[in-house]
């Protein structure tokens, strides 16, 4: 059994064993208050194995299944694991930073890790075609990345209380995957620098909002 299938199976088993609302779900989900006040740091990783429902799980695991092989081919099994779990951790750490004054904030899902795998794939192959539901044509990876980052940054800076998507975790995970790919495949990064630069413009703007204007954190 390869490492990709093993991660998918383990995540599915844990998601079904600890459904939303169960004691273990509450014990291991990402929770700002529990992490900061009770030092339950295991939640930074364990929340990546929990999902709200079957559709949430299937969407994440299907995306991982399709893009995982690109990362494994480019960085090997160890690189895949570093990107996947590193993206979950950094995504949740960024969420902790963003929502540190909101102890009630909680989240679950492998989306941070999946975002890292997806964007590591795009860093390797910027023109990688990405297909969305109900859209019959492939979208070049770097265009998808630009739209994805733009939307996530906008939603972070203009939060909607009815929006249940963890944009901070997505951004943190995607950033980790992107940086890992650039550092470990510098030649490809140089060749694709124009596409990566275009895709990263929203991240530069977010950095300005965080570190210059102090709008977040």
TrEMBL record:
Taxonomically, the superkingdom here is Bacteria
Single GO cellular component term: membrane
The protein in question is named Membrane associated serine protease, rhomboid family
User: Domain Peptidase S54 rhomboid: where?
Assistant: 39-183
Q: Which GO terms describe its biological process?
A: proteolysis
Subcellular localization is given as: Membrane
Provide an example Pfam family for this protein. Answer: Rhomboid
Show which residues constitute the signal peptide. Answer: none
Matching InterPro entries: Peptidase_S54_rhomboid_dom, Rhomboid-like_sf, Rhomboid_protease_S54
Chief location category: membrane
Keyword Zinc-finger on this protein? no
Keywords associated with the record: Hydrolase, Membrane, Protease, Transmembrane, Transmembrane helix
> Which family does the similarity line name?
Belongs to the peptidase S54 family.
Membrane topology, as annotated, equals: Multi-pass membrane protein
Any one GO MF annotation of this record: serine-type endopeptidase activity
Question: What sections of the protein cross the membrane?
Answer: 41-66, 78-98, 104-125, 132-153, 165-183, 195-212
